[in-house]
Amino acid sequence: RLKTRTAVSRLLSTAINDARSGRLATARARLRRAVERSPGDAVVHVVAGLVAFVTRDYGESIELLTRAAS
User: Fold this and answer.
1) CB 24 within 8 A of CB 52
2) What do you get for the CA distance between the two ends of the chain, in Å?
3) Taking the alpha carbons of 54, 32, 23, 10 in that order, is the dihedral positive or negative?
4) pLDDT digits (tens, 9 = 90+) for 13-41
5) DSSP H/E element including 45
6) Which end of the chain has less Cβ packing within 10 Å, N or C?
7) How far is CA 69 from the centre of its chain?
8) What pLDDT sits at residue 3?
9) CB-neighbour burial class of residue 69 (10 A; exposed 0-12, middle 13-18, buried 19+)
10) Are 38 and 4 in contact (CB under 8 A)?
């Protein structure tokens, strides 16, 4: 469990850095993996939803942000 949490934290941190640097496709790929590994983590869903929004994938964004809120 701790290994998974550490891996997800690393994916999340790296994805945020990717997004800040304009590597949005890479960020989205990392965030998809983070969501798969930690499906109940609201923070991961929020970040993934925001990156999906920035890349104009509004349907995915709504889905991820809705999951984060539930």
Assistant:
1) no
2) 22
3) positive
4) 999 999 999 999 999 999 999 999 999 99
5) helix 42-54
6) N
7) 14
8) 79
9) exposed
10) yes
Spatial CB neighbours of 31, under 8 Å, sequence gap ≥ 6? 11, 12, 15, 44, 47, 48, 51
Name the percent of the chain lying above pLDDT 90: 91
Which residue carries 């999340």 as its tokens?
12
Confidence of residue 2 (pLDDT cuts 50, 70, 90): confident
The residues, ordered by sequence, that sit 6+ positions from 60 with a Cβ below 8 Å of its Cβ are 49, 52
| pTM of the predicted structure, to 2 decimals | 0.91
Q: Are 19 and 27 in contact (CB under 8 A)?
A: yes
